[in-house]
Write a structure and sequence with these properties.
495 residues, alpha/beta, 6-stranded mixed sheet, 18 helices, 6 strands, 50% helix
Length: 495
């Protein structure tokens, strides 16, 4: 098979993410907290890296100006600062001066985008805030630190829950279900938080500095997702859109935020006029899909050192998925909406069956199959072209979501990609998506006026099948880990 190459003109179809990265190549964050509060674990889990603070903990390197950039995720840069110890004013001055210097820098890429102020949730009689911390929060409330978003992060929430569960009256629990006990424990934990954390915080911080309880242990990934969502919202409001998009791109705990960022990137240019694009004029379908693919993959920001997700093989595989579903049987549209989110459980079940180490994964679309003729066609306004573009965007996004489910921030392998693709194709979701798009396209009359509605339909379908962080944690528990399994080629040779 002759490989498909981008035309010479494709160089002019620049990915939107290239421009975003030019303005803001990394999410820049300052994390403040004493040793032992869980900063390293927080960063590792939120951004999908290992040993984020390892080099910073070496003697002589503990400088707030030192830029920590992980080779496993180059979309964020970390500045680390120890907490504000009692009677020690030097570090408070260092932090204030650092924030002031970064605020004065003209380029967004050099400015500070957010601050996480970390505390371990204290015991009942413990004190949350030291004098230096109170002064820092007062500085923010009085406007001395500018608009820089500050989020208070209360760590080791799981320990608080364990403590609250141990204090429950056993006699009152006998008639309660396991879920009821969990709810009572959470309520008691919230009451405790109000007394020992939230009330003291609000006294000095006011209502403008949000707080989030987090845990990196157990089934609490949704707490990290809440932290990154609140951070992204604050960065968007107080810093810049490019910085908030890079916040979403850098994080690796919230697939819903990835989908939201993909939509926002698409709205900036290429998704706005799929039905009547002047940008795509005189381009082949391959060229157009090439730039759409690059943007979506860039937003998901997997650790992909071998660039498998940008490879010719994977791009061709996605084209074949669109073509296969286009000519395949159509799902019953009357049953589509009723099934909804239960499909994520189906995907998890299929993954569990496929993820064992026994045999290579065989994708039901052979790499040797010739690409559809339409991929070479020049872009034109037509129902078929619109349907293919919509299908490619949604299918690729949901395959990325499935890969997020199976990869757990590990290095991307071809086996993991094949597992995600095979699971997605074997689930009813892929057929349902095609049905949604097909039914929509059949109802269109004037294509030239369809752009706004088309974008809305893409957003609707993607959000309908979006998996939130809590669901993701539950599903991952059902899937064998991929990390120890060897990689394999795109197509397994037949013996």
């Amino acid at each position: 098979m002759q490989p498909v190459s981008s035309s010479s003109e494709t160089q002019e179809l620049q990915p939107t993410t290239n421009e975003i990265s030019r303005i803001c190549p990394r999410f820049r964050i300052l994390v403040i907290g004493k040793s032992g509060v869980g900063k390293s674990s927080l960063i590792n889990h939120t951004f999908g890296v290992q040993n984020a603070l390892a080099s910073h903990n070496k003697p002589g390197e503990a400088s707030i100006d030192h830029e920590l950039i992980s080779p496993q995720n180059k979309r964020f840069v970390l500045h680390d600062s120890k907490g504000f110890e009692p009677g020690e004013e030097d570090n408070l001055k260092i932090v204030r001066n650092f924030i002031d210097r970064r605020r004065a820098m003209p380029d967004l890429k050099n400015q500070l985008h957010a601050v996480w102020l970390c505390f371990e949730i204290p015991c009942t009689d413990g004190r949350l805030l030291e004098t230096g911390t109170e002064s820092f929060l007062n500085s923010k409330r009085e406007g001395k630190l500018g608009n820089i978003p500050i989020v208070v992060v209360l760590t080791k929430y799981d320990k608080l829950l364990d403590r609250m569960e141990r204090t429950l009256d056993e006699s009152s629990l006998r008639s309660l279900s396991e879920d009821d006990i969990k709810e009572r424990t959470k309520k008691n934990a919230q009451d405790e938080l109000q007394d020992i954390c939230i009330a003291p915080l609000e006294k000095f911080a006011g209502s403008d500095i949000p707080h989030v309880t987090v845990s990196t242990n157990g089934n609490h990934e949704e707490t990290l997702a809440r932290l990154i969502r609140i951070t992204e919202e604050r960065v968007r409001k107080h810093v810049a859109t490019e910085a908030s998009l890079m916040t979403s791109i850098a994080q690796r705990v919230d697939p819903g935020l990835k989908i939201q960022a993909s939509i926002e990137v698409g709205k900036k240019k290429y998704w706005k006029a799929l039905a009547s694009s002047t940008t795509f004029k005189n381009r082949t379908t391959w060229d157009c899909l090439y730039v759409l693919h690059t943007d979506i993959v860039a937003v998901w920001n997997f650790y992909d050192p071998h660039h498998y997700l940008r490879s010719q093989e994977f791009r061709e595989l996605m084209v074949k998925i669109v073509d296969r579903l286009e000519v395949g049987p159509t799902a019953d549209p009357t049953k589509t909406i009723a099934i909804g989110f239960s499909m994520v459980g189906t995907i998890a079940g299929i993954m569990a069956a496929l993820a064992g180490p026994a045999a290579p994964i065989v994708v039901p679309i052979a790499a040797s199959v010739v690409l559809a003729v339409w991929v070479h066609d020049v872009y034109q306004i037509s129902h078929a072209v619109l349907q293919r573009f919509m299908s490619y965007i949604v299918h690729l996004t949901l395959v990325m979501q499935t890969l997020h489910l199976v990869s757990e921030s590990q290095e991307v392998t071809r086996r993991a990609i094949k597992l995600a693709v095979t699971s997605y194709l074997a689930s009813p979701v892929s057929g349902e998506v095609h049905t949604w798009i097909q039914e929509y396209e059949r109802g269109l009359t004037i294509l030239e006026r369809a752009d706004r509605d088309t974008l809305d339909k893409i957003v609707e379908v993607m959000q309908f099948y979006s998996i939130d962080a809590a669901q993701m944690s539950e599903l991952r528990a059902k899937i064998p880990p991929m990390g120890s399994l060897p990689d394999e080629p795109w197509e397994v040779e037949k013996s």
